[in-house]
């Protein structure tokens, strides 16, 4: 609480800086006037000479102002403001160096920020669904081939669905491509998800029209049905209000459209058409069958760790025939990255790209040191006048912050444009490539904070390192 009150008091003083400065000037003026009146009364001198002697007796108004600012915690602000102004002045004074420095660091920061935003969207995504963090993937990790889980999971799906208690609505889907015959008579190849009805319960999104898939739709011999997205309803079917109940040809069969999902809905990947998943596990032996992705939602109160412990204890179906499989429960989005090895590799790439800024900043610091060395006379005079080494280093660091700050602004603009370009490309191709619907590349708050950290790092390398080297010199000469 003491720290909180101190911080609040400093913030209040900071916001009232002008008022504090005005009061300080009034206070000093009052003391000078009082001393002037005393000198006039005791010596008989005129007011002008008495005021001059009062200032002499006072011993330096600016020194007292600095002491008062120190007491109010405002001295650093005045110094920082002055240093930043000097930094802007140095930018104009050395345009060639400024252009090279800002350009080089801006490109490095843009690459670092872009990589951070890209990798962050892949490694730490948020599913845009209700309690999306509780949606999980179920899979069998293959000890013989880490990073490539066994997708022949039809028998596992049926096995786990009846035994696991820490997860609910265990479901599965398989991706497919089929020919859709449009009302105009033209045909087009579209991506289709063969999905269990539990997928809509896991997503917790109600249809905008009609109904979702039901468990009865998965029965052998049930009529073929189809659920479509709002976008497809508008684009392919002209927003026909009577679309529910209509029949369309999908592949070799006629399907009845039973529902239209809300705009923007995509699950389990970037699909726009859903049909029931109809496979009988009894028709397949151990380790055979279609390639499936399994999903579920954590039961109320259950944790990911508890679900992992339970599935490890239950084991895979046909465990005796497939002892190399290790059942896993993991965050849904994480299951599409490619395993822990891929995660470590992506994080390593992100770190390596970030180090690119260090290389550029070191090269810029060499140029800045050459400029700093040429200012040895200025540094010596400031030191002789009482400036501490910390004060001089702080000034040079502030000047470097102007460089790195401008570079960060330009770098963020470049990164934003690059990520927007990548996003626009993916929007046109992600359905074909089964790209995740939750990945959105952009400048998140974490990316902006990361860029600020890069700018501070660059400022420290460019400003502090040359400053420490330059201020080690003996200033007596």
Q: Would you kindly provide a written description of the structure presented here, covering whatever features stand out?
A:
This protein is α+β, with helices and mostly antiparallel strands and about 475 residues long. Helix content is about 55%, strand content about 15%. The chain contains 14 helices and 10 strands. A 6-stranded mixed β-barrel has the order 2-3-8-5-7-6. Strand 6 and strand 7 (about 255-260) form a beta hairpin. Helix 6 (about 95-125) packs antiparallel against helix 14. Mean pLDDT is about 80; it is low at about 75-80.
Give the SSE layout:
Elements: H1 2-15, H2 17-43, H3 47-58, H4 61-72, H5 75-93, H6 95-123, E1 135-142, H7 154-161, E2 167-181, E3 187-195, H8 198-203, E4 209-210, E5 225-228, H9 230-237, E6 247-250, E7 253-260, E8 273-276, E9 293-298, H10 304-314, E10 325-331, H11 340-373, H12 376-384, H13 389-429, H14 445-470
Parallel strand pairs: 3-8, 5-7
Antiparallel strand pairs: 1-9, 1-10, 2-3, 2-6, 2-9, 4-7, 5-8, 6-7
Helix pairs in contact: 2-3, 5-13, 6-11, 6-13, 6-14, 11-14, 13-14
């Amino acid at each position: 609480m003491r720290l909180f009150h101190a911080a609040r008091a400093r913030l209040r003083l900071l916001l009232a800086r002008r008022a504090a400065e005005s009061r300080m000037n009034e206070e000093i003026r009052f003391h000078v006037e009082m001393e002037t009146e005393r000198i006039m009364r005791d010596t008989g001198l005129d007011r002008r000479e008495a005021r001059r002697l009062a200032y002499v007796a006072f011993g330096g108004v600016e020194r007292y102002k600095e002491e008062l600012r120190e007491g109010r915690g405002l001295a650093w602000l005045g110094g920082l403001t002055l240093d930043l102004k000097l930094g802007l002045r140095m930018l104009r004074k050395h345009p060639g160096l400024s252009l090279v420095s800002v350009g080089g660091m801006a490109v490095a920061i843009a690459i670092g920020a872009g990589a951070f935003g890209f990798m962050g969207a892949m490694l730490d995504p948020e599913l845009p669904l209700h309690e999306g963090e509780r949606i999980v993937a179920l899979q069998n990790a293959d000890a013989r081939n880490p990073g490539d889980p066994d997708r022949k999971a039809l028998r596992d799906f049926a096995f786990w669905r009846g035994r696991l208690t820490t997860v609910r609505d265990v479901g599965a889907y398989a991706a497919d491509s089929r020919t859709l015959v449009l009302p105009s008579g033209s045909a087009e190849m579209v991506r289709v998800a063969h999905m269990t009805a539990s997928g809509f319960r896991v997503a917790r999104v109600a249809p905008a029209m009609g109904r979702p898939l039901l468990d009865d739709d998965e029965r052998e011999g049930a009529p073929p049905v189809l659920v479509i997205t709002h976008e497809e309803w508008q684009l392919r079917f002209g927003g026909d209000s009577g679309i529910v109940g209509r029949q369309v040809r999908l592949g070799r069969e006629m399907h009845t459209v039973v529902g239209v999902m809300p705009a923007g809905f995509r699950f389990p990947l970037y699909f726009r058409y859903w049909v029931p998943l109809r496979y009988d596990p009894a028709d397949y032996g151990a380790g055979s069958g279609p390639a499936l992705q399994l999903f579920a939602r954590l039961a109320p109160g259950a944790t990911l760790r508890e679900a992992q412990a339970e599935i490890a204890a239950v084991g895979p179906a046909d465990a005796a025939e497939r002892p190399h499989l290790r059942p896993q429960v993991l965050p849904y989005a994480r299951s599409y990255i490619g395993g822990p090895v891929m995660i470590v590799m992506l994080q390593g790439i992100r770190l390596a790209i970030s180090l690119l800024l260090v290389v550029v900043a070191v090269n810029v610091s060499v140029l800045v040191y050459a400029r700093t060395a040429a200012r040895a006379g200025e540094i010596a005079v400031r030191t002789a006048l009482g400036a501490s080494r910390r004060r001089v280093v702080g000034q040079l660091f502030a000047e470097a912050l102007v460089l790195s700050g401008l570079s960060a602004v330009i770098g963020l603009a470049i990164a934003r444009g690059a990520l927007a370009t990548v996003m626009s490309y993916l929007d046109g191709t992600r359905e074909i490539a089964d790209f995740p619907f939750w990945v959105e590349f952009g400048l998140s708050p974490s990316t902006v904070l990361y860029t600020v950290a890069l700018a501070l790092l660059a400022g420290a390398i460019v400003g502090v390192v040359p400053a420490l080297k330059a201020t080690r010199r003996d200033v007596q000469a």
